[in-house]
Amino acid sequence: MGSSETIFVRLLEEGIDVWRPVLAEVTHTPNVYRIVGIPDGLVPSDEILEFPIGSIVKCESKLLEGRKEKVAVTRCL
Asked: Which pTM value belongs to this model?
């Protein structure tokens, strides 16, 4: 595996915007990552990630709790 970073993926069916930190492998394309897992192991069974582990996603910067973070916004083919 190449280098990895933490990015954020929106959780579905939460009623409000909730973001889960995930580990993502850096690709050769700027702002495109492959989601490889979550820092603490498995995704809890009651959480539905907008983009599941294994997805290749494009990220944008977003302000989350006062900090600029990379968030997954679209799935790449």
From this structure: 0.91
